[in-house]
UniProtKB/TrEMBL annotation:
Protein name: DNA repair protein RadA
PROSITE patterns in the record: RECA_2
Source species: Bradyrhizobium algeriense
Similarity comment: family membership: Belongs to the RecA family. RadA subfamily.
Entry keyword Metal-binding: yes
Taxonomic lineage from the root: Bacteria, Pseudomonadati, Pseudomonadota, Alphaproteobacteria, Hyphomicrobiales
Alphabetized Gene3D superfamilies for the sequence: 3.30.230.10, P-loop containing nucleotide triphosphate hydrolases
InterPro entries per UniProt: AAA+_ATPase, DNA_repair_RadA, P-loop_NTPase, RecA_ATP-bd, Ribosomal_Su5_D2-typ_SF, Ribsml_uS5_D2-typ_fold_subgr, Rubredoxin_2
Region (Lon-protease-like): 354-491
Written domain comment of the UniProt record: The middle region has homology to RecA with ATPase motifs including the RadA KNRFG motif, while the C-terminus is homologous to Lon protease.
Region (Disordered): 460-491
Short sequence motif RadA KNRFG motif: positions: 255-259
NCBIfam families from the UniProt entry: sms
């Protein structure tokens, strides 16, 4: 009988230790080590395993004919966009998202559309009973779809059942944290069980050619729970993002071996399930507050799709020794860099102000082209100067204060013209890349100083007392110029 082997495994990264310790040295997380029984992994003696000889296999050259992987369309355009054109036969996808965000709803709709198209689709739930899945299908109006349901958590039983009859084209496992296998003795949900269960399902997918979607839980930090090695085992990792207070959801590819990783799919949560949004710019700008200081429209690119979104900034006098810097939907380090450039090269003194920046609608912006729109919104809020309502902004700001060009300028301008915008503020060196601007008035900016001076010239005092009016007059000054307070005192 094999000797029982106990080890302490990190529930965040999967690192194993011989003894318990408060902090994991691999991922630097605290209180993530849990005791697990790893007898199943070493049940065979080393002397017996070393006697097995490996088999030889044929090696091939790089030259030769290679065919594209056959894909299966899910029937949902936004889902196919993120996956790269559909599900690849034998691929395994990992879908993560916050609880209640709509992962089960999305996958129920996808399996129902595939089943109605004549393909065998199987939905296996480890968290809900079959009756609960049926209630969701009835609410979505998909009760007549020939989807095969089951409530099972044993991986061996699942593989044995799916191996009989025709091979399913799509299998949904909801969720991987509830699965368990007989090969290990750990409890379901632990790192060892999640890794072993995922490996068994991946072997079945590669052998049978069925596409499998694994649903994963999300931690407080927004990362997919379980060992990070699971993300390396699967072919694609999709993140379903959104906020409970918002009615739309964003599906983003974090990893994709068969397609791009910068595409997004936009859905709207309705009473009848998730509705695809073909033009997300109209959705993000639907509740825009026109004529308010501190708002600027950014023309961004998500993959191959241009997206227009509103950036909101609030600059308020602080009562704290260290001013606050809060960002939602953008990189905080980019905001710190923009604030430093504004103060060093443009004379915008923000050391005594709290700064808040928000991307309206909950979209997360990752490209540096939003620097110019963020800077315009910040200065607009500081000097109480509303920006033109028909203008879009995009451009990257360098540390010297220059505005650098960004990619796909023509696509950004075409999307802005389609939504009725009349002008665009863009980098001066990007004029050579412009194809069709759709009749927009192009205002090129070579440096950030000229844009700040233009916005400050339209500023007006706030109706909040003399202190704020003085702050508005002193907030934006010329570089190396005499402060306004000093001039008034001498006069």
């Amino acid at each position: 009988m094999a000797k029982s082997t106990l080890s302490f495994v990190c529930q965040n990264c999967g690192a194993a230790y011989n003894r318990w310790q408060g902090k994991c040295d691999s991922c630097n997380k605290w209180n993530t080590l849990a005791e697990e029984d790893t007898t199943g992994a070493t049940s065979m003696p080393v002397s017996v395993r070393s006697r097995r000889k490996g088999r030889t296999f044929a090696l091939e050259s790089l030259t030769g004919k290679s065919n594209d992987a056959p894909r299966l369309s899910s029937g949902m355009t936004e889902l196919d966009r993120v996956t790269g054109g559909g599900f690849v036969r034998g691929s395994v996808l990992l879908v993560g998202g916050d609880p209640g965000i709509g992962k089960s709803t999305l996958l129920t709709q996808a399996t129902s559309m595939l089943a109605r198209a004549g393909h065998r689709a199987v939905y296996i739930s480890g968290e809900e009973a079959v009756a609960q899945v049926r209630l969701r299908a009835e609410r979505l109006g998909l009760a007549d779809a020939p989807v095969q349901l089951a409530a099972e958590t044993s991986v061996e039983d699942i593989v044995s059942t799916l191996s009989e009859g025709a091979v399913p084209r799509l299998i949904v496992i909801d969720s991987i944290q509830t699965m368990w296998t007989d090969t290990v003795e750990s409890a379901p949900g632990t790192v060892t069980q999640v890794r072993a269960s995922a490996q068994a399902l991946i072997r079945f997918a590669k052998k049978s050619g069925a596409a499998i979607i694994l649903v994963g839980h999300v931690t407080k930090d927004g990362q997919i729970a379980g060992p990070r090695v699971v993300e390396h085992m699967v072919d694609a990792v999709l993140s379903f993002e959104g906020e409970g207070s918002q009615h739309f959801r964003i599906l983003r590819a974090m990893k994709n071996r068969f397609g791009p990783t910068d595409e997004i799919g936009v859905f709207e949560m309705t009473g009848l399930g998730l509705r695809e949004v073909s033009n997300p710019s109209e959705l993000f700008l639907s509740e825009r507050d026109l004529g308010s200081p501190g708002t600027a429209v950014f023309a961004g690119i998500e993959g191959t799709r241009p997206v227009l979104v509103e950036l909101q900034a609030l600059v308020a006098p602080t009562t704290l020794g260290t001013p606050r810097r809060a960002v939602v939907g953008w990189d905080p380090s980019r905001l710190s860099m923009v604030l430093a450039v504004l103060e060093a090269h443009c004379g915008v003194k923000l050391s005594g102000y709290d700064v808040y920046l928000n991307v309206a609608g909950g979209l997360r912006i990752q490209e540096p082209a939003a620097d110019l729109a963020a800077a315009a919104a910040l200065v607009s809020s500081l000097v109480n100067a509303p920006l033109p309502t028909d203008a879009v902004y995009f451009g990257e700001i360098s540390l010297s204060g220059a505005v650098r060009p960004v990619a796909q300028t023509s696509a950004r301008l075409k999307e802005a013209a389609k939504l009725g915008f009349g002008r665009a503020i863009l980098p001066e060196s990007a004029r050579g890349e412009i194809g069709s601007d759709g009749g927009l008035v192009l205002n090129s900016v070579g440096g950030l100083t000229s844009l700040v001076a233009e916005i400050a010239a339209r500023g007006s005092p706030r109706n909040a007392g003399a202190g704020n009016r003085e702050a508005n007059r002193e907030g934006v000054t010329e570089k190396n110029a005499t402060p306004a307070r000093f001039r008034r005192e001498n006069s």
